[in-house]
Amino acid sequence: MEEEQVRAIKIIVFGVISWGVAFILTRRIFSSYSFSFSNRLLSTAHATIAVTLATLSVQDLSCPVCPLASKPSHKQMDVMAFSLSYMIYDLICCHFDQVFSIDNAVHHFVSILGFIAGLAYQKSGSEIVATLWVAEISSPFFHLREILKEIGYKDTKLNLAADVCFATIFTLARIVCGPFLVYVSLSADNPIFIKVFIYSFIFPNYQEIVQWDQDYNS
């Protein structure tokens, strides 16, 4: 096992424990709010940190997905390990929620396998990190909308601003950038499972936009 993989395993183990402890503390601090409220706070933290780290790991700003089908850099390995630790935590956490979503669980399971494949094969670092960036860039605003509603800011200008930001960023990321990212990833010499991971991470998971539509019209 290479040194980078050992480092990734340490990040994953430490990350899963840290996310779990952070959730317990968050639940105690915000005990008057729902289970989902605490989980959304951590989801927002993960998305913000993951997007920041993914941006900093880009090797060529003129071509964020370059080099294609290549060995991930140290920074990209760290990003994948960090997000893998969160996905493992969140998959476990969602089993304790009163409303269990099979779609969400499957999405997390595929994501976990995708990150593991990237770390194990040590390939497709640029594509996986770019996929993470596209998938998570709108997440903070998605969760912010629900957080604002729970603390009493539903039907306010602040909540409307979060709605507009989410809809705009989601559209640009998933519908404009997403198809291009999937195309270059499927065209490159990537392992088949990583191709499936990238496709499933970008396209089928429209839970966010469906829930936004339901909440907006409720």
UniProtKB/TrEMBL annotation:
Cited SMART domains: TLC (SM00724)
Membrane topology: Multi-pass membrane protein
Keyword Transmembrane: yes
A Pfam family annotated for this UniProt entry: TRAM_LAG1_CLN8
Entry annotated with the keyword Metal-binding: no
Transmembrane annotation, as ranges: 6-25
Subcellular location field: Membrane
GO terms under cellular component: membrane
Domain TLC: 32-218
Keywords from the UniProt entry: Membrane, Transmembrane, Transmembrane helix
Major localization listed first in the record, in broad terms: membrane
Name of the protein in its database record: (thale cress) hypothetical protein
Species in which this protein is naturally found: Arabidopsis thaliana
Upper taxonomic lineage: Eukaryota, Viridiplantae, Streptophyta, Embryophyta, Tracheophyta
